[in-house]
Amino acid sequence: MSKRLTEGDLDQVESWIGSGPKTFDLLYSITRNGCNASVLHQKCDNQGPTLTVLYNMEGSVYGGYTGVSWQSPHNVLNQTDDAAFLYQLDISSSKIPKKFPSKSGQTAICSFVGHGPIFGSNTSVDLFTFSGDILKSSSGEYNMNGNMILYGKNYETGGTLPKEVNNGHMRVAELEVYAVKDGRRQKPDLPTPWRKTAKWGPKLLDSLKEEVKGIKPPAGLGVPHFNILLLGPLGSGKSSFCNLVASVFRGRISHQARVGGSTLTSTTTLFTPYDFGDKASLQLYDTSGIDETNTLDLLQCNNILEGNVPNFYEQWPTLSNKIHCVVFVLDGSTVGEICFKN
């Protein structure tokens, strides 16, 4: 479990708090300081507003925020806090941010010596993290002795069940408490660019267009332009890319609807061609997006690659009819979800 709060997560929490820019300073971490209630209170008591974050091995991230200080009295201290809320950022590695504000007049947090953060009251607990000292198990988790049995008792959870937040258990890989203060946090430096690029402008644009225009098929082959086929899932951006390239070479905003192209049947469009004339020695072929109900079968794909279009069953396709390059287009926001297996 390597998940930690991202800048996007902090932006989300900042918007939920709703009182301007915030800094988040780590006060306590069970992997750094040990899962011990006494140590937690030494680090976190009387620190003002704090954010408690729990992470589990399934990739779920959740917790609570309070605008009042944690304390460690020997008698139970229940406190109301209109600013308090419970939340979830991820469930099973899927980003599903939800805020659950405290109910008016209900107890928001409970402070007690020997106990970790408690959201709710001592008699009706929404989120009770742990008490005493918890050791790390051989699996690398901390089997917290708290619970979320009455999740939604003191907070507006909209019927969200505990298992929809914590995967039905209280085992965590990490628990953190952050001090939340007014101020703009310093953004991390952007990664070093993998290559140097010239300053963007009309001069660079013209230079790049000329460079692309100069890429031509070898003479004597009877091939006027390269044929480039775009394949990919529905909504991955194939048509948008084609229209962007067309706009660049035509010098105006261009949008070509997928209305032409050759058809396998009267209802199935194989591709839509994008021709740039003498402005570029290439022709793009945009295909229908692939999904569970709209697939490009092997016969269709083979016929496109071999140049058996537009007549679909042209007997002797020439080299100029064939596809010279295939590009598989993916939505950049989904790349992190792709798993590569041996």
Task: Explain what this protein looks like in three dimensions.
With 342 residues, the chain is of the alpha+beta class. 18% of the residues lie in helices and 25% in strands. The protein has helices at 7-17, 30-33, 37-44, 163-166, 202-213, 238-250, 298-305; strands spanning 22-29, 35-36, 50-55, 61-66, 77-79, 85-91, 94-101, 109-111, 118-120, 125-128, 133-134, 142-143, 171-172, 174-182, 226-231, 271-275, 282-287, 325-328. The strands form five sheets. A six-stranded antiparallel β-sheet has the order 1-14-3-4-6-7, with helices on both faces. The longest helix is centred in the last third of the chain and has 13 residues, at 238-250. The radius of gyration is 29 Å and the shape is elongated. The two termini are 21 Å apart.
Q: Class by helix and strand content?
A: alpha+beta
Rg: 29 Å
Largest sheet: 6 strands, antiparallel
By DSSP, the count of extended strands is 18
Question: Total helix count?
Answer: 7
What is the chain-wise order of helices and strands?
A: HEHEHEEEEEEEEEEHEEHEHEEHE
Assign a percent range to the helix content: 10-25%
| Percent of residues in β-strands | 25-35%
Strand order of the largest sheet: 1-14-3-4-6-7
Flag low-confidence runs: 259-268
Query: What is the general shape?
Result: elongated
User: On the 0-100 scale, what is the average pLDDT?
Assistant: 87
Distance between the terminal alpha carbons, to the nearest Å?
Answer: 21 Å
- The protein's oligomeric status is single chain
